[in-house]
Amino acid sequence: MKLETKITQLLNIKYPIIQGGLAYLAYADLAAAVSNAGGLGQITAMSLSSPEALREEIQSVRNMTNHPFGVNYAIGQHGRPFEHMLEVAIEEKVPVITMTGGNPAPIINRLEGTGIKKLVLVAARRQAQKAEQLGADAVMVVGQEGGGHLGRDDIGTMVLVPQVVDSVSIPVIASGGIADGRGLMAALSLGAEGIEMGTRFIATQECVHAHASYKQALVEGGEADTVVIKRSLGAPARAIRNGWTDEILKLEKEEKKYEDLKDYISGTANKRYIYEGNKDEGFAWAGQAMGRINDIPTVEQLITRMIQETEDIRTRWSR
Questions:
Q1: Contact 104, 120 (CB under 8 A)
Q2: pLDDT at 77
Q3: Which of 55, 235, 288, 314 could form a disulfide with 145 if both were Cys (CB 3.0 to 4.6 A apart)?
Q4: Nearest 5 degrees, angle CA 124-CA 138-CA 240?
Q5: For 127, how many CA atoms within 13 A lie in the half-sphere containing its CB?
Q6: Among 246, 237, 194, 238, which residue's Cα sits nearest to residue 218?
C-alpha cells in the first residue's frame, strides 16, 4: 500500500510512522527494526553515557539498516550538557534529529546548513509556532494521552492536533494515544502528516532493553491504569500506576519539594522497573494507548498490521 505524505517525503521513509525517543529503551535494535519496517526508528542520545557510546549506537544502526533513522535529544530533562553529544550526530551525518523538552533553539541553530532534518516535540500551539519560527522542519504534537513528559494544559490529541495544523505551515506529526492503524488514520484525518508512537513500540520483540514484566504490564493494563506524576514540579508525565507512583502522588499532595521527590522520580527508579522488572521499587512511563495493546509482536508485524488496518479503513470509506 502506498501511504505518501509530506512526512514520508521529508524524511524519505515508506510510512509516516515515527518511533518515539523512549528514554533508556530506544537503542539500535529497536531503531533499526522500525526503519527496516518502513518507519523512522530513533536512538535516545541523552540516555547514553558518553559521545563514544552514541557513536557506537549510530554505527550499530547503520550496520542493521540502510534506511533513514533519527537521534532524539531530550534536552532539559536530564540536567546534562548535550552539545558534545550533538556533535557526534552531526559528524556521523545522521538523517534526522528530534528534540524533546527544553529550548530547541541551540540545536536548531547548530544544525543550520547541515542538511539534517529537524523535528521538535511540542505540547501547545504556541510552542509549535515558535518551533516553526526557529526553523524546525516539522513538529510532533503530543496530547495529554501520551506517555512520559506531556504539556501542562491537559489538551487531548483530538483537539490539539487540528489546532496546531491550523496554526503552522510546516508538517505536523500527531502523538499521544496512538497504537494502531485506526489511530494513524484518525491523525491523518485531523490534518497531521504522520504519527509518533512510543508506548506501542515498547511492547515489541525488538525493544530488547525493556523487561518482560514491563511489556506484560502494557498488554494486561487498560487505558485507566496510568497516572500523571510530577505536576507539582511543573513537568507532568504519564506512567503506569503502581504503589511507587501512588507514593509520588502522596508526596506531591503534601506539597513536598523536588529534594523530597528526586529519589522517587529519578532515572535510577525508572530503570529498576523497566530494566529489572521491579514494580515495587520503581516506575515505568506509559501512555493511555496501553489500553490498545494486546500482544508483543515484532516491529515488522506491528507496522504491517497497522498499514493493513489503514487500507481496510480506506476501502470502507471509499464505499
A1: yes
A2: 58
A3: 288
A4: 55
A5: 23
A6: 238
Q: Are 21 and 198 in contact (CB under 8 A)?
A: yes
148-196 pLDDT per residue, tens: 999 999 999 999 999 999 999 999 999 999 999 999 999 999 999 999 9
- 17 phi and psi angles, rounded to 5 deg: -125, 120
Query: Which residue from 98, 200, 191 is spatially nearest to 147, judged by alpha carbons?
Result: 200
The whole-angstrom separation of Cα 71 and Cα 107 is: 12
Structural element, H or E, at residue 64: helix 51-64
* C-alpha closest to that of 232 among 196, 209, 259: 259
User: pLDDT tens digits for 207-248?
Assistant: 999 999 999 999 999 999 999 999 999 999 999 999 999 999
End-to-end alpha carbon distance in the chain: 18
Give the rounded percent of residues in the chain with a pLDDT score beyond 90: 96
- Strand order of the β-sheet with 226-229 is 148-149, 237-240, 226-229
Length of the chain: 319
Sequence-ordered list of residues with C-beta below 8 angstroms from that of 116, at least 6 positions apart, any chain: 89, 90, 93, 94, 95, 96, 97
Residue keyed to cell 513538529: 139
Sheet with 172-175: list strands edge to edge: 17-19, 194-197, 172-175, 138-142, 117-122, 96-100, 69-74, 41-44
Q: Which residue bears the cell 547503520?
A: 62
